[in-house]
Structure to design on (135 residues):
């Protein structure tokens, strides 16, 4: 708190400014969207790998694989090999393909969103933001 010349305390002033986001640069939105989607894709692959390792250590695949093998076995041959089908390399390959598709889609949707925002901001004026600064 500040004191005036008479010694009484004064309330600090707050400067406020009302601003409007009238346009968003689609190129910068595309770059930021690309980087964020890359980070999300990397996190997804790591999370799937950790989850697979935890489930494998707990014996989930062995237990479920045994049940599926028994249920699908016939007189002429064995059943479906779930453990071989859900191996770590196959799961990570599928996850990586999904992550790459996700990167492309998220980048395109973010850029499209910037174009749509710019068109709608031209009609309605954009988003208003109030900024405050304490002195």
């Amino acid at each position: 708190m500040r004191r005036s010349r008479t010694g009484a305390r004064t309330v600090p002033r707050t400067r406020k400014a009302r601003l409007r986001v009238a346009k968003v640069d689609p190129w910068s939105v595309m770059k930021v969207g690309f980087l964020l989607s890359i980070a999300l894709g990397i996190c997804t692959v790591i999370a799937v790998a950790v989850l697979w390792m935890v489930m494998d250590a707990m014996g989930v695949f062995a237990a479920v694989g045994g049940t599926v093998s028994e249920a699908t076995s016939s007189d002429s041959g064995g059943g479906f090999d779930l453990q071989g089908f859900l191996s770590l390399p196959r799961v990570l390959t599928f996850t990586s393909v999904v992550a790459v598709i996700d990167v492309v889609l998220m980048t395109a949707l973010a850029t499209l969103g910037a174009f749509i925002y710019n068109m709608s901001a031209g009609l309605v004026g954009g988003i208003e933001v109030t900024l405050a600064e304490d002195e």
